[in-house]
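Exercise 7b. Backbone tokens:
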């Protein structure tokens, strides 16, 4: 493992890592100030072909090569969080076949589909705290299991692969739970809190595996019975606090025998 923090530079020497061919983890933190830029060239990374985790965080004005993933063919974890990155593009011939976890949270991204397209193995994506409006990942990430997209500008999702089990869409612009989410057959945890969801246009949540549903801080005036039709015997945690619900309809939770937590207070 190699860790840089607070070195505040504009670039690295091409020879910096040439004696570290066996390196598995590289973590770079706070390497540039808001008044300067940092350019990570492809040549600097070329000696690190065996790298499995690459982290570049809390830095400003980052310039990354579009061939980043060509230099790191064995990469499994990529963390580019908290950099204020406005755009992120990848040369599509560069495919990291082993990349499993991608953290792009706390940037200024408005789109990430082009970067993700054709990276087949990704299981977890965090795009929290960006400016993303639309997200379509079914073809780009066919084995995705966990999506963290809280605090963006999402009002609808086009599609998600059936493999997804955890979805966090808190703090977006949702007026209803997207159909791409309601049809997921294996969904275990869903967070749609802090949106403007209303009860009148609700769809059935198709997953019988759903254990946690957080719909707090919305505009619900009742608990939609459609949400529980498939998962009522599995649901363990139901958060409905800070809505406009004064009373849960009689019988709606009658068969929810696994419930451990229910929060309904205003």
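Sequence design result:
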């Amino acid at each position: 493992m190699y860790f840089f923090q607070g070195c505040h530079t504009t670039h690295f020497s091409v020879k910096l890592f040439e004696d570290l061919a066996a390196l598995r983890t590289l973590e770079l933190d706070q390497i540039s100030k808001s008044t300067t830029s940092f350019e990570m060239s492809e040549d600097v990374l070329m000696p690190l072909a065996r790298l499995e985790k690459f982290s570049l965080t809390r830095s400003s004005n980052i310039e990354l090569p579009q061939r980043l993933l060509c230099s790191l063919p064995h990469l499994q974890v990529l963390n580019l969080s908290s950099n204020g990155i406005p755009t992120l593009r990848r040369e599509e011939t560069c495919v990291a076949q082993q990349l499993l976890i991608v953290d792009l949270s706390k940037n200024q991204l408005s789109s990430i589909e082009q970067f993700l397209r054709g990276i087949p193995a990704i299981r977890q994506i965090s795009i929290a705290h960006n400016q993303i409006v639309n997200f379509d990942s079914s073809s780009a990430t066919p084995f995705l299991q966990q999506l963290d997209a809280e605090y963006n500008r999402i009002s609808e999702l086009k599609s998600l692969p059936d493999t997804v089990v955890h979805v966090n869409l808190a703090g977006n612009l949702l007026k209803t739970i997207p159909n791409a989410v309601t049809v997921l057959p294996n969904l275990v945890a869903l967070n749609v809190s802090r949106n403007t969801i209303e009860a009148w246009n609700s769809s059935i949540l198709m997953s019988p595996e759903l254990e946690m549903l957080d719909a707090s801080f919305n505009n619900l005036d009742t608990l939609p019975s459609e949400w529980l039709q498939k998962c009522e015997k599995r649901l363990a945690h139901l958060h409905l606090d800070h809505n406009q619900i004064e009373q849960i309809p009689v019988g709606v939770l009658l068969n929810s025998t696994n419930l451990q937590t229910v929060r309904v207070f205003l």
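Instructor comment: The chain has four helices and 14 strands. The mean pLDDT is 92.
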